[in-house]
Amino acid sequence: MFPDIPAPALGVLTQLHNAGFAAYVVGGCVRDSLLGRVPGDWDITTAARPQQVHEALPGLTVLDTGLQHGTVTAVAEDLRLEITTFRTEGTYSDHRRPDSVTFANTVEEDLSRRDFTVNAMAYSPMTGLVDPFDGQADLKAGILRAVGDPQKRFDEDALRILRGLRFAARLGFALEADTAAAMHRQKHLLSALAQERIRAELLPILCAPHGVEVLRQHRDIFAVILPEIAPMFDFDQQNMHHQYDVWEHTLHTLEHVAPQPDLRLAMLLHDCAKPARFTVDFRGDGHFYGHAARGALIARQALERLRCSQALTQRVVRLIHYHDHDILPSRRSLLRWLGTIGEADLRDLLYIKIADNLAQHPKYLRVERFQQTLALLDALLAEQPCFDRGSLALKGGDLVALGYTGPAVGQALDRLVNAVIDGAVDNERCALLRFLQT
Hints:
The chain is of the alpha+beta class. Helices cover 49% and strands 11% of the residues. Strand 4 and strand 5 form a beta hairpin.
């Protein structure tokens, strides 16, 4: 049975129906409801033209948000309901948007233009479920199938390739064979998409429950939008610490970090420079000296191209840059790291090192050491220790009052921080002043 439609959406359907117009909730909200999930948005398709929607909903605020596509948005209580007139679409000369839109007479015509069968269903409490492409059967079978000719669907809008992979990653659905084949044939069209659109699909895939398997099965598609990953494919590490090639190692690390965009991006790209930094010693063992620093540069270029925020880019680059550095399980080491990158980055860097280690050869696991380091970090932070200028008991103004000027102020503060970390002086104002005089 179809779950309850929110009262504001049901009210809009009822008003349109009473005004003589067929109206349905459509697309993702129908799919998610049939899966027992709570939809994030409720979209409506109707026989009413935009002006007729205005007239049928006199008590609501109706905004003209996309008249060229027959779309208005009704504000009903706490919901914004996108209402679109039944339509068919013309050619897609840019492989992204239709060159023209024509209003249609039936909901079936409207559903025939949609991307996948599981998204091509409509429901009205007055008339029931409309499912001309057996989307409900595909939902039950866990299959993602394009509506009609898949080659045509992806040629019309190349973003549908990434949308399909996102659905597969989120729902764990298998791609129907012809649909998958068409995605791979049409993957070159992705290079023409706006980078913001690519990023908006890529990040949810990386963080989805089945994202790793989607990356594994369709790596050639992802290499079109993120060519930095291609050198990792099938690259033999020739090192006893590793049982996987670089790409397979990367996929395993992704499974061991939290599904957050910053951590998943850091793991995806942490070894992207290994092929470029590969050397073999006289014993035939592979090494990747400098791959972390080089990988950070490559990651920055990739994330800036994808128009990621500056904060996200800087954090991912920082984690990649330091991921191969040693973090000793000692008070002094942790205090210096806290002063260098702060608590949040240090904690996540340790999580990254755990994930990296879990994806290596089982003979060389050091997870217990990293977990002990995390425990030591927690105990250390509970003491509220001094590890940077801000936590010193002596401030810059104090030094200026003592006659310090210009760069000498910062140099003196750094000297004091290092002395406190080394245990040479207590973080107390009088003790620090005496130390400066020695």
